[in-house]
Specification:
Mean pLDDT: 92
Largest sheet: 5 strands, mixed
Strand order of the largest sheet: 1-2-10-7-3
CATH superfamily: Cytochrome P450
Bound molecules: protoporphyrin IX containing FE
Number of strands: 12
Distance between the termini: 48 Å
Order of helices and strands: EEHEEEHHEHHHHHHHHEEEEHHEE
CATH architecture: Orthogonal Bundle
Structural class: alpha+beta
CATH topology: Cytochrome p450
CATH class: Mainly Alpha
Radius of gyration: 21 Å
Length: 372
């Protein structure tokens, strides 16, 4: 199904919501990020992220994108991420040690969900962990909705910070992704590397933080699933796929939202002609709740097959999916085996939401527990 909607920025767009269509279109190269006339293009948000498109033809965009994947994908391969698993588990266990030293209720979002992905992406990229509060502020500013200036400022600060880091690493190389990017690129490309690294730092934590929080909420309000997992931790990978698929219980995402793309040629979707330059939103969340593909889509349950589209599909499939999966399986593995009882200390309806932020999620997650 395709329908006309208005984006959060107030511009017209097309929204696609059926699973099969969303999946096919995610892989369709005729839909892209570029636009021939960016100043007059319809916008999804006012943020620099998923806001104004860049000027590019389909060919230029494919070339740039292929180069980007060639540069980044090897560092985040499933094989390399599996090697990180024991380290990620140790970090998750240490963070839970810190959590249980706090009086109850304690804020799981601050103590674990935020820290784990940030620690891991900092180690991988070679970004000093001590700087996390600074780049957290900039990341948050960058993904602010509805305030273009604040978003641009956050982006510029993060990019400048990464530029300085790139210069330092040119003099003192490390064993990290940024150093490998520098070594694999001809001189003069420092700005591009800084931009890629800023993107990775952002992508590497914002989304995973929100999914960890979402998993804690879902397991808290579905205690049968928590019990089943504590008895059988081998089911954690399945549960993680269901956490990835399922909408957040605290979600306030407008129903008319989706992954933004621009038609780079006149195309037809579901019998409707979409002119080149129009904005098309690919409803990943809606597709993940399409009952033809997922029976009882709103139930949080153990599913035999879970071909959700949370990491996208096709040539833009999330480069960080193997890393996110390692982090999620390890943090939930550590959680269900460590505590006898564990759950939210307040109702989901009482949680403070990050409505200003593109990725959304919650600002705090008060939890209580008893040790196993
Ligand atoms: C649960 C956590 C995550 C979710 C839900 C998620 C989701 C996504 C989605 C939906 C896309 C596709 C965007 C599109 O089709 O335009 C994507 C792309 C991407 N993700 Fe993730 N992501 C997560 C974690 C990560 C992590 C940890 C990294 C860090 C390495 C990362 C890096 C990237 C990059 C670089 C791309 C761009 C790929 C491309 O354009 O070819 N993501 N992610």
């Amino acid at each position: 199904m395709i329908k006309k909607v208005t984006t959060p920025a107030g511009d017209p767009a097309w929204l696609v919501t059926d699973y099969d269509q969303v999946k096919t279109l995610l892989a369709d190269r005729r839909l892209g990020r570029g636009h021939p006339d960016p100043d007059n293009a319809p916008k999804f948000t006012d943020s620099v992220l998923l806001g104004k498109p860049h000027q590019a033809t389909a060919e230029e965009e494919n070339e740039r994108h292929t180069w980007m994947r060639r540069m980044l994908a090897p560092s985040f391969s499933a094989r390399n991420m599996e090697l990180l698993r024991p380290r990620v588990r140790r970090l998750a266990d240490d963070l839970l040690d810190d959590l249980v030293r706090q009086p109850q209720p304690a804020d799981f979002h601050e103590a674990v969900s935020f820290q784990l992905p940030v620690l891991v992406i900092c180690e991988l990229l070679g970004v000093p962990y001590e700087d996390r509060e600074t780049f957290r502020r900039w990341s948050e500013a960058m993904s602010t909705l509805g305030d273009r200036r604040k978003s641009e400022e956050g982006f510029t600060n993060l990019w400048t910070y990464m530029g300085e880091l790139v210069e330092r690493k040119k003099k003192e190389p490390g064993d990290d992704v940024i150093t490998r990017l520098i070594e694999g690129t001809p001189p003069g490309q420092e700005e591009v590397i800084a931009q890629l690294s800023a993107g990775l730092l952002f992508a590497g934590h914002e989304t995973t933080v929100a999914v960890i929080d979402r998993g804690v909420m879902l397991l808290s309000i579905n205690p049968d699933q928590w019990d089943a997992l504590s008895k059988n931790p081998n089911d954690i990978p399945n549960a993680v796929e269901e956490i990835l698929r399922h909408r957040s219980p605290a979600s306030q995402r407008p129903e008319d939202s989706g992954m933004p793309r621009y038609a780079m040629a006149d195309i037809e979707i579901d019998g409707v002609r979409i002119p080149s330059g129009d904005l098309v939103l690919l409803g990943i969340d809606q597709a993940n709740h399409d009952e033809i593909r997922f029976p009882q889509p709103h139930a949080f349950t153990s599913r035999e097959a879970n071909p959700h589209l949370t990491f996208g599909h096709g040539p833009r499939f999330c480069i960080g999916a193997p890393l996110a999966r390692v982090e999620l399986t390890e943090v939930f593995g550590a959680l269900v085996t460590r505590f006898e009882t564990f759950g939210l200390a307040v109702d989901v309806a009482q949680l403070t939401l990050r409505t200003e932020q593109l990725v959304g999620g919650v600002a705090q997650l008060p939890v209580r527990w008893t040790d196993a």
